[in-house]
Amino acid sequence: MGWADTFLNRIRRAGTPGAAARAGVPVDRAAEAAAELQAVLALLVEAESTGAEIRQRAERDAEELRERARATAADLVAEARARAAAERADAAATARAGCLAESAQLTAEAGQRAAARRELAEERLPGYVARVVAAVRTAGEEQAEAGAGR
Predict the structure, then answer these.
(1) Is residue 36 part of a domain?
(2) Is the pLDDT of residue 8 over 70?
(3) For residue 14, which of 19, 24, 99, 117 is within the disulfide window of CB 3.0 to 4.6 Å?
(4) Domains of the chain: total
(5) pTM of the model as a whole
(6) Is residue 8 included in any domain, yes or no?
(7) Gyration radius of the chain's alpha carbons
């Protein structure tokens, strides 16, 4: 009952109305409260110190995590840039191969059309030569007749 006695004695009044009681001296309540709270406050100082250490450790850990995250992000960016260059090279090679295939196909088609035109020209050439020769003979004969008639 030590605690209860201390608590009750703290609120005991000196000179209460009623029957005579032992003589009391006014209690220094501030000193009693300070003495009572001193142990609790000492624990709070220790808890505050521990809390500050925990906060400092947490800040260091958080900074380490941020540094690791920055390093990881930088590595990822570098890797992505390297892969992007390789992907661009692959895309260019694919496009180049497609262009070369299309160019080869167009060249083959143009060769076929040229061969068809050559064949057509070879078929028609004797007829044209015959017409030109006939026209030249006719013109030569008309000129000869015109020269004889003068």
Answers:
(1) yes
(2) no
(3) 24
(4) 1
(5) 0.39
(6) no
(7) 58
Using DSSP's 3-state secondary structure scheme, residue 16 falls into: coil
Report how far residue 54's alpha carbon sits from residue 46's, in angstroms, rounded to the nearest whole number. 12
pLDDT tens, position by position, 31-71:
787 888 888 888 888 889 999 999 999 999 999 999 999 99
Q: Could you tell me if residue 10 is inside a domain?
A: no
Find out whether 30 and 49 touch, Cβ atoms under 8 Å.
no
List the beta strands (DSSP E) in the chain.
Answer: none
Cα separation, 136 vs 128, whole angstroms? 12
131, pLDDT greater than 60: yes
What is the 3-state composition of the chain as percent helix, strand, coil, each rounded to the nearest 5?
85, 0, 15
* Residue 121 falls inside a structural domain: no
Domain range spanning residue 88? 29-113
Locate 148 and state its tokens: 């004889």
Q: How far apart are CA 28 and CA 25, in angstroms?
A: 9
Distance of alpha carbon 82 from its chain centroid, rounded?
14
Cβ atoms of 24 and 12 closer than 8 Å: yes
Which structure tokens are listed for 1?
């009952």
CA-to-CA distance for 8 and 14, rounded, in angstroms?
13
Instruction: Write the single-letter amino acid at 150.
Output: R
